Amino acid sequence: MPSSPKTLQAILGAPGLRGEKVTALSKDGLTAFIQSTISTKHEMKEPFYVLDLGVVMDLFDKWAQTLPMAQPFYAVKCNPNPAFLGTLAALGSNFDCASKAEIDSVLSLGVSPDRIVFANPCKAESHIKYAATVGVNLTTFDSKEELEKIKKWHPKCALLIRVKGPDDGGARCPLGPKYGALPEEVSPLLQAAQAAGLNVKGVSFHIGSGAMQFRAYREAIAEAKTVFETAASLGMPKLRVLNIGGGFTAGPQFAEAASAVKSALQDYFPNEPELTVIAEPGRFFAESAFTLATNIIGKRVRGDLREYWINDGIYGSMNCILYDHAVVTCTPLAEASKHGNPTCKGAKTHDSTVFGPTCDALDTVLKDYPLPELQVNDWLVFPNMGAYTAAAGSNFNGFNTSAILTYLACSNPI
Ligand SMILES: *Cc1c(COP(=O)(O)O)cnc(C)c1O
């Protein structure tokens, strides 16, 4: 079901976007939009992002169609761009925040605090106190120490016990090594919460970001079921919330992940009309919505090898190569050297290295990558750059990731 014009109007007027220019893209119009941005706005040739709101709307529809029983709480850490958050808020997403500042950025969009889960199992006391002040009343825990802090600063907060699933799903970024109660820790933790008079409402897990093996959802949902039973056997009020976390990637894998979730819900939680299922997708919504344009600022020729320097790299947006184990791709936009054929269709390619701008050899973005002969001032365009990119970049060597501008566009406008 395509998003209605009403939805689009609501998004364009939403906090985070209001007053921003949004350019409608025709089919395959992204390249043309990047070209016009380069020629009209980027004399200084700084890198920039394009956020395609049409992609976000499509993904939101896809989620609602494929996993309608799981309310999405978008994981802000994945990409906190305000226009992106505003779009998700207008579409009806809720939010997963991990810090005071993330809570602030979501509340500042006019989102009510009951649409936020403070899904960080280990929070600073000052952040817990802040959550209490602003009315964020749902959080996760996996230790007795966390329960003590919550009891002290936010005793009315509803709690989800974060469990470590049996398997990290072959994830690009496993989270199990850091978070989640082990099976033998569950009962003592529930008893500690009960003794402290705290309100445990349900169970949460995360099978790992960029998961590949979706049976991990089934195993974690089975594990969650045993926690529900443990709580019942301890005489606690019935648990009602199941938080299946993130780990979803858009594209064909999504259907596979969703069917693993759905069949496990049917098998382990049949006939539970009162169960609320929530999820915390980050990558799913962010990854393909953002495209990054970078400028070629340097070149060296060594025999057959071509080496290029661009103005964003490992210490900036491409930190995803290190931290998110991402494999990035790019296409050329030869705005300076090939006016007649900027996308270089049919051009002979050379094995090329693409370096970032800092003076560290680690700052290498691509190796042995086929690119046509390009020149200084041409551009390289990187698709699928929305997840764990700008969010975790630094200002190392004076290259300021947080200064990279984002232009808004909308494909398939109605
Ligand atoms: C990072 C994180 C997410 C988002 O994970 P994705 O794999 O990007 O969907 C969700 N929940 C928690 C608790 C996280 O730490």
UniProtKB/TrEMBL annotation:
Residues 48-386 form the Orn/DAP/Arg decarboxylase 2 C-terminal domain. Pfam families: Orn_Arg_deC_N, Orn_DAP_Arg_deC. It comes from the Eukaryota. PROSITE patterns: ODR_DC_2_1, ODR_DC_2_2. The modification N6-(pyridoxal phosphate)lysine is found at K77. Its EC number is 4.1.1.17. Homodimer. Only the dimer is catalytically active, as the active sites are constructed of residues from both monomers. This is ornithine decarboxylase. It comes from Corchorus capsularis.
